[in-house]
Specification:
8 helices; about 85% helix; mainly alpha; single chain
Amino acid sequence: MKKDLHFYWKLFYSTFLLSAFTFGGGFVIVPLMRKKFVEQYGWLEEKEMLNITAIAQSSPGAIAVNASILVGYRLAGVLGSVVTIVATVLPPLIIISVISFFYAAFRSNPVVNAVMHGMQAGVAAVIADVVLRMGKSIVDEKKISSVLVTLGAFIAVYFLDINIIIIILVCGALGAFFALRREKSRKERS
């Protein structure tokens, strides 16, 4: 893929629009990034996007920003990361700056409050879509270890109320263990 000015503009413009018109945070923007960069443009594979999402979620900071950095880097190196980070951060910065001037009017406006409540339902639907799509791709791999780790993490968070940091560390250790075991068995076969 040739990285010319048109490519960087398309990367910036796509990421800027995703950031500008996404409400609900990183869990909402990630499936939209997937749709744009995997399905529409074909710049990334489904598995790459799943890996980017996992890394972005487990890294410190906002998942939308982390995912943008990783997508940009994967597509165009350091310059791609700079382009996508600026495109991701700029819309909220502009919107918050404008809202800060009119805060008193927005704070008590019943229409604004009703719109925000309506957006919550939409955000919940998008998050459910992410869980189902990414969960399906894990199940489709037919790797029982990945399915068990996913189910175990869900049970640990939802039913056992275990601290998310512990879950991330355990899942990371399990992932490293399974990857090393796969690599060892691959070398033994060669």
